[in-house]
Amino acid sequence: MTDTLPDTAAPAAAAPPTASPAPDATRPSSGRAKRHPRPSRRTAAAPPRNHHPVLEQLATLYPGLFGQVFLPLKRGIFQDLLTAHPDVLVRDTLKVALALHTRSTRYLASVANGLPRHDLQGVAVEAMAPEHVHQALLEVFRRRQARANTDLTPELRSRIAQAFEASGLSKEDYATRVLSKDDAANAVLDEALAEAAAGMAKDEALRRAFALSGLDVAGFAGMYGMAPDAVAQSLDRAQRRQATPAEGAQ
Fold first, then answer.
1. 238, 199 in Cβ contact below 8 A?
2. Between the CA of residue 138 and those of 7, 108, 112, 132, 134, what are the distances in Å?
3. Average pLDDT, whole number, for the chain?
4. Structural element, H or E, at residue 125
5. Which of 161, 101, 171, 152 is nearest to 133 (CA)?
6. Helix and strand tally (H, E) in the chain?
7. Residue 228: which residues within 8 A CB-CB, separation 6 or more?
8. What three-state secondary structure class fits 246?
9. What is the number of other CB atoms lying within 10 angstroms of the CB of residue 178?
10. d(Cα 31, Cα 101) in Å, to the nearest integer?
């Protein structure tokens, strides 16, 4: 799912140096070397990346899906497009365009955010599978890491933990669905699941303590020196897990 980089032209071969004329022996030397102008460090701006013409058509036809914001596409969208525009879209070029679109970082980011799949009318019709969210997260962070000067692993770990909680699966079921052949990615997954489990346990402990305290949120937070907003968020997470036990299963 890596981007295709445009080919770059090979640098032109340097011209062979020309022999400098011998100094005139009849003229006294000034003792100063002749200065040559330094080449400019400015480089020509890179030309804008060309967009596939079919993608431009799709952005015009469906700006809510292919415009400024990309939304995940439903399964079978390829055939839906051909059926809706038989005189405009050609099978082979549409296939290439959709492949470019769905491999783009912007599209993968929308998948990594856990957004549902949408039909041509922009209606959400299907939840994104946890394994697709996970794969998109790994690829988006792989591309970001290639350009970053700092280690993005902690951020990736946090995002995986959030995706796990949103999946509604137990740790075991989630791991089974998203495990890959990449040992490094699997190690980050293990750390993220452990981080999520610790957070869940902390929220549950706070929920129980709050229930026994008989205090309101502000009073409870003040007793423990915590921010009321943080306590409210922790209680909300714990209560949501109580309502959907599988989400907090370990």
1. no
2. 26, 10, 9, 10, 6
3. 83
4. strand 124-126
5. 161
6. 11, 2
7. 217, 218, 221, 222
8. helix
9. 25
10. 64
End-to-end CA distance of the chain: 32
Rounded CA Rg of the chain: 29
Structure tokens at 72: 């995940």
pLDDT tens digit sequence for 126-162: 999 999 999 999 999 999 999 999 999 999 999 999 9
What is the pLDDT averaged over residues 215-229? 92
pLDDT in tens, 26-40: 444 444 444 444 444
pLDDT of residue 240: 83
Most confident segment among 22-26, 71-75, 193-197, 207-211: 71-75
> Nearest CA to 165 among 125, 198, 213?
198
**DSSP per-residue string spanning 148-183:** -SS--HHHHHHHHHHHHHHHT--HHHHHHHH--S-H
C-alpha separations of 27 from 19, 21, 168, 237, 243 in Å: 20, 14, 90, 90, 98
User: Residue range 189-212: average pLDDT?
Assistant: 93
Question: CB–CB of 245/231 below 8 Å?
Answer: no
